[in-house]
Design goal:
This protein has 187 residues and is α+β, with helices and mostly antiparallel strands. Helix content is 22%, strand content 36%. It is built from four helices and eleven strands; from the N terminus they run ββααβββαβαβββββ. Strands 1, 2, 3, 4, 5, 6, 7, 8, 9, 10 and 11 form an eleven-stranded mixed beta sheet that branches. The radius of gyration is 16 Å and the shape is globular.
């Protein structure tokens, strides 16, 4: 589980590995950790959203205590389809929070964002707002929508919950932002 494998790098105690190279035991440990962190509110669709990209993992001995992932999505803004790195499944075991593990995982994922994407995005809880703002993430102020099988549909319930990490793409934070479709929570 904690050994270095193909397709993996380590940064400041964070194991950064793509889903394709994430062994089954690490995958199970990540899902179990997020179930604890989100107090059983981690649906199968939520876990599915966290797969298919890069995972930032923090291990303490043989126990996984932190997970975050970065997956590619398309966000529409200003008449353009932007290549976005979308952060999913961020969590640190409750008894290990406040020790810099979340910051270390985000630093690793933000490094990937800077090298591969036009912007970063994530959906945040109220509790996470200050943490992400301190890292340079900005709250999206404009209307949010999703490109569904039935066309563009407003997602008013998500307004104010999405944050972006500005990179190369010109952004008007008060403009409309549209995400690509996926099962479960679209943002």
């Amino acid at each position: 589980m904690t050994g270095e494998t193909r397709g993996e790098t380590r940064r400041d105690g964070v194991r950064l590995v793509h889903t394709a190279h994430l062994d089954a035991a690490s995958r199970r440990a990540a899902r179990a950790l997020l179930d604890v962190v989100f107090e059983g509110d981690m649906a199968d669709d939520d876990w599915e959203h966290a797969l298919g990209g890069w995972h930032a993992l923090v291990w303490e001995n043989a126990e996984l205590i932190g997970h975050a992932s970065l997956v590619q999505r398309r966000l529409l803004h200003g008449g353009r389809a932007l290549r976005a790195g979308y952060v999913e499944g961020v969590g640190v075991r409750p008894d290990r929070q406040g020790r810099g593990h979340g910051s270390a995982m985000m630093t690793a994922l933000e490094g990937v964002l800077r090298g591969a994407y036009e912007l970063g995005a994530l959906g945040s809880t109220d509790e996470g707002e200050r943490f992400y703002a301190s890292r340079g993430w900005r709250r999206w102020l404009g209307p949010l929508s999703a490109l569904t099988p039935d066309g563009v549909v407003r997602t008013e319930e998500e307004d104010g919950c999405v944050h972006v990490f500005p990179l190369a793409a010109p952004l008007d934070l008060s403009g409309e932002l549209i995400c690509d479709w996926r099962d479960g929570d679209v943002w």
